[in-house]
Amino acid sequence: MEHFAEVVSVLTYPGVPENIMPFVAYKASMDKVILEKGLKILVLRVVGTDSYYVIFPEKTTMQRCLDDLKKAGISINKRTELYISKYIR
Predict the structure, then answer these.
(1) What is the pTM of this model?
(2) I want to staple 44 with a disulfide (CB 3.0 to 4.6 A). Which of 5, 23, 30, 35 is the partner?
(3) Ordered mean pLDDT values, 10 residues apiece, the chain (89 residues)
(4) SS3 track for the chain
(5) How far is CA 88 from the centre of its chain?
């Protein structure tokens, strides 16, 4: 089953809301990203669920991001893709 996600927030660590922090910590451990002050975090809400998908734009490429979303069964529209691409170096 494929889900759709949209960007809901751009955060800077450590300013992460308590309800989103478990998703950030999990993704950081999966991507081997150290949570350090000033780290940018893109938060996507997975529509129809209580889940969020986290992207560390300074630690990935656009292609890897798209591949990871696809592996997770998450699709995004072109508007969301364009928005994400503004943060990824």
Answers:
(1) 0.93
(2) 5
(3) 92 97 98 97 96 97 96 96 93
(4) CCEEEEEEEEEECCCCCCCCHHHHHHHHHHHCCCCCCCCEEEEEEECCCCCEEEECHHHCCHHHHHHHHHHCCEECCHHHHHHHHCCCC
(5) 11
